[in-house]
Amino acid sequence: MAYRIFIVDDDKFLLDLYAVKFKNADHEVSVFGSGEDLVAALRKKDAVMPDAILLDVIMPGIGGFGALEMIRKDNLAKGAKIIILSNQGQDSDIEKAKKLGVDGYIIKASAIPSEVFTETLRIIKTEKSN
């Protein structure tokens, strides 16, 4: 089954790397270079919601947590699994992500693209337990 994946990161190289990984498996991918771009896309009247959003934390302007707070506050991305994909692995960041209701947290530095791919699909297929 093909999924719609949104990837948000200010690192163009990583955006391309992950996008290719998902596209090669016939998934539909949209990439965004900032939290602002993601939120704007989700707010469009005719927006098609993703199955998952891979969201970096540290970005210029609105970072991942800021975007996530807006998504939760405005009830955007209904039904999408939100996965933090960041180099920020401090307990405080992971705890903040949990409080904001993320479905997964992947630390970039310790996961190769195929692991990110596999974990994303696993999370999409997992029913929310709340």
Description:
- The structure is a single chain.
- The chain is an alpha/beta fold and 130 residues long.
- The protein has a single domain, classed as Response regulator (Rossmann fold, 3-Layer(aba) Sandwich), CATH 3.40.50.
- 41% of the residues lie in helices and 18% in strands.
- It is built from 5 helices and 5 strands; from the N terminus they run E-H-E-H-E-H-E-H-E-H.
- It has a 5-stranded parallel beta sheet.
- Helix 1 crosses helix 5 and helix 2 (35-43) runs parallel beside helix 3 (64-73).
- The longest helix has 13 residues, at 113-125.
- The two termini are 25 Å apart.
Structural descriptors:
130 residues; alpha/beta; Rossmann fold; 5-stranded parallel beta sheet; 5 helices; 18% strand; globular
Whole-number mean pLDDT: 93
Described by strand count, sense and barrel closure, the largest sheet is: 5 strands, parallel
Figure out the total of helices. Answer: 5
CATH topology name = Rossmann fold
The coarse overall form would be: globular
Instruction: Count the E strands.
Output: 5
How helix-rich are the residues, as a percent range? 40-55%
Q: Which architecture does the CATH hierarchy give at level 2?
A: 3-Layer(aba) Sandwich
In the predicted model, the low-confidence regions spanning at least 5 consecutive residues are none
- Rg of Cα set: 13 Å
Q: N- to C-terminal separation?
A: 25 Å
Q: Give the SSE string.
A: EHEHEHEHEH
What percentage of the residues does DSSP assign to strands (E)?
15-25%
CATH class: Alpha Beta
